Amino acid sequence: MAPELFQKKAYDKKIDVWAFGTLLWEVFARKVPFEGLEPSDVAQRVMSQEALDMQSVPKKIAQLVLECRNMDPKKRPDMGYIIQALENL
Asked: Which domains does the chain have, with CATH numbers?
């Protein structure tokens, strides 16, 4: 879940960008982020900006994941940008 959901703040379509970034990471890392943790522990790790393990993720994909998972929703890219970035790989 995007940080703004854990904070019970207003949100918009940028939560889907966060989710897409997480899904993209899962595809390349072949892991589930914070697997086995309770939802409250996952929330704590997201809110403390704990980084996902990017060792097995190609550099350009890792950068896109980081952009999608920016803590500030206003700084997350839109899906048009994401599609263009993926097409350019």
From this structure: 3-87 (1.10.510.10)
How far is residue 55's CA from residue 5's CA, in Å, rounded to a whole number? 28
pLDDT tens-digit series, residues 43-81: 999 999 999 999 999 999 999 999 999 999 999 999 999
**Tokens 């996952």 found at:** 42
Residue 58: predicted pLDDT? 97
Give me the torsion for CA of 16, 21, 25, 31, rounded to 10°.
-30
Of 87, 86, 76, 80, the closest CA to residue 17 belongs to 76
Residue 84 CB contacts under 8 Å (≥ 6 apart), including other chains: none
Using CA atoms in the order 32, 66, 70, 19, what is the torsion angle rounded to 10 degrees? -40
